[in-house]
Amino acid sequence: MERVMSAIPHEIEAHQVHHLPIVKAYADKIGLVEVMNQLVVTEMDIDVGTVVLGLILDTLRGRTPLYRLQDFFAQHDTELLLGKAIPAAAFNDDTVGRVLDRLYDTGTSKLFTACAVRADQVLRFDTPYVHFDTTAVSVYGDYSPPETSEPQEVPLTIT
């Protein structure tokens, strides 16, 4: 009996992961980390794809301010959620800020498109119609119909 008891660790860690391993599985399936790393090359200690995956997981868990992101990862099993054991300090706000700068420099639409195309190649979405939804550009008033007494349809609908 004592032999069995000695195999039990003195301290057991438990983490609430909720839906995050499922998100990680989909990210792995579409190769999210690999796509990001191909398009955004850096010489940082942590690769861009892993930081992006971390940001996605954090956002889907409830969104932490950048200066608290390493606190989020200090409370989670990074090996489970990111595929490799990474110290939480790797997600400090300076590192994440540099990654966000590199993403911006590369072009977020280019990155999003690459991920969407990869997801479509792997998951085979039904794509007869494609929508691009953004709140980053205001087009209010740019496509107003001409002033007439008769109601007319708006020529372009932006959703």
How would you describe the overall organization of this protein?
With about 160 residues, the chain is mainly alpha-helical. It has one domain. It is about 50% helix and about 0% strand. It has helices at about 1-5, 20-30, 30-40, 50-60, 70-75, 80, 95-105, 110-125. The longest helix has 16 residues, at about 110-125.
Shape: globular
Percent in strands: under 5%
Helix content: 40-55%
The domain tally reads: 1
Terminal CA distance: 66 Å
The class by helix and strand makeup works out as mainly alpha
Q: Give the uncertain stretches in residue-range form.
A: 154-159
Largest sheet: none
Order of helices and strands: HHHHHHHH
Tell me the Rg in angstroms.
Answer: 22 Å
User: Please, what is the average pLDDT?
Assistant: 81
Output the number of helix runs. 8
Number of strands: 0
Architecture blueprint of SSEs:
Blueprint: H1 2-6, H2 20-30, H3 32-39, H4 48-61, H5 69-74, H6 78-82, H7 93-106, H8 108-123
Helix pairs in contact: 2-4, 3-4, 3-8
